[in-house]
Amino acid sequence: MSDERVRYNDTDLQEFKAIIKEKIEKAERDLQLIRESFINDQNNGTDDTSPTFKAFEEGAETLSKEQNSILAGRQEKFVRDLKNALIRIENKTYGVCRVTGKLIPKERLLAVPHATLSIEAKNMQK
Asked: Cα Rg for the chain, rounded, in angstroms?
């Protein structure tokens, strides 16, 4: 009979839950900042400057908006992954590798709280 734990105990799960909720709050604040900078026109009153400079400025502004859009998408995925981790905590499946079925080490979960794969499983994907 294996003495390997099948899941984290309720005390551990509550500890992870607190960490994840804190990360969600910060991630949502960061997402809001990204969205605000995306929406903000940030016109610096350069309408009357040389057309050459205006073209450069418009190109940079477009690039900046594209970068913000990419950042916002990544941040939205991060928040979604963290919220999914909360669901796994409620289901008491949090911390169980979805490939190997083994417990993901606590150190990994503290570093990447939304992880669903152990390092072993991650290496098998390569």
From this structure: 21
User: What's the rounded Cα separation, in Å, for the pair 103 and 115?
Assistant: 11
Q: How far is CA 34 from CA 12, 41, 74, 122, in A?
A: 33, 13, 11, 30
How do the domains of the chain map onto residue ranges? 10-42+49-92
Ordered DSSP codes for 14-26: HHHHHHHHHHHHH
CA distance 122 to 126: 7
Over its length of 126 residues, how does the chain's per-residue pLDDT go in tens digits?
344 678 999 999 999 999 999 999 999 999 999 888 877 655 555 555 555 555 555 556 666 778 888 999 999 999 999 999 999 999 999 999 999 999 999 999 999 999 999 999 999 987
The CA-atom distances, in angstroms, between 108 and each of 1, 26, 97, 104 are 26, 20, 11, 7
Chain centroid offset of residue 40 CA: 23
Do 66 and 37 form a contact (C-beta atoms < 8 A)?
Answer: no
- Among 104, 106, 94, 110, smallest CA distance to 119 is for 104
